[in-house]
Amino acid sequence: MSKAFITGVSGQDGYYLSKYLLDKGYEIHGTVRRSSSINTSRIDSLISEFSETGKFNLYYSDLLDQSSLSNLINLIEPDEVYNLAAQSHVAVSFKNPSYTSQVSTLGPLALLEVIKNSKKKIKYYQASSSEMYGGKDDKLLDELSLFDPKSPYAAAKLFAHNLTKVYRDSYDMFAVNGILFNHESPLRGETFVTRKITRAVARISLGLQKKLTLGNLDACRDWGFAGDYVEAMWLMLQHDKPDDWVIATGESFSVKQFLNIAFEIVGLDYEEYVLTSDKYFRPNEVNFLKGDATKAKKELGWEPKTSFNDLVKMMVESDIELSKREKVLLDKNLIKPTWEYPS
């Protein structure tokens, strides 16, 4: 039975990757950061179904605690390590650049050092980001495109990306970079623009919210489904040699287009409900991102299965069900109404 060690296992990608690997018969060992408000809601179903059999195991650890990571990896002796943990919200990285940078640089360094010194040959996956490109021009971006990070998050991710290549080349390690473009799902964090939109659409359609305030509506992104993208992570570690791959749909849509499709699902016009505020504009805006996954399609046999329209529909329908439950609690006076969803 193969063993996978996953940092950030309680996040969106952590859930989908864990589910994918469990279906393949893997034994999962994942880390969650000890804090005053530990949230395992995304993976509670996996904990319930697989923890008693030893197939899904959780540990308290932190990417800034090298000793803890070293002890865990040496104890577990995994076949594969997937580093998904990060402070991944770009806007937050401007407000807390120090923590964002430390987690995304010192964390990968600690993992690579442990793997380098391990007696076992361990394969390593580093979660890189399309934000590293900067998105200045309307260009199709691949593995050879130039990087030009526009945020502390992107700069830190680029450091980790290059560090992974350094360790791969210097120590003959099986270490790969997955340059994933934006990938969403019903499990996306509610402060990310896609989920913020679909939560608002659902709440507005049920009378729980009146308006939605956003930033740059003209920003364009290559949006895919997280459930499709985790398959690419696994395929990278099954390839005959380590490398870097772009994972993307090859299509780019604006926030306005996302809004239009999402509101149309519930029969509403987004222009009647959406406001903009300078509060939500980035200090250094990334205007356009679109990826070219030709290399992944050719070498890994990977391609996205979920269309943009189906992704938006999936997220809206999921949030409608969530909002229906919220409305029941509101009608019973068990919660207080909020007319604009928190930013």
Percentage beta strand: 5-15%
Q: In DSSP terms, counting alpha (H) and pi (I) runs of 4 or more, how many helices?
A: 11
The residue ranges in which pLDDT falls below 50 over 5 or more consecutive positions are: none
Q: What's the architecture of the largest domain in CATH terms?
A: 3-Layer(aba) Sandwich
Task: Give the topology string: H per helix, E per strand.
Answer: EHEHEHEHHEHEEHEEEHEEHEHH
Top CATH class of the largest domain: Alpha Beta
CATH homologous superfamily of the largest domain, by name? Answer: NAD(P)-binding Rossmann-like Domain
| Count of domain modules | 2
**Rg over CA atoms:** 20 Å
Q: Which class do the helix and strand fractions yield?
A: alpha/beta
Which word captures the global form? globular
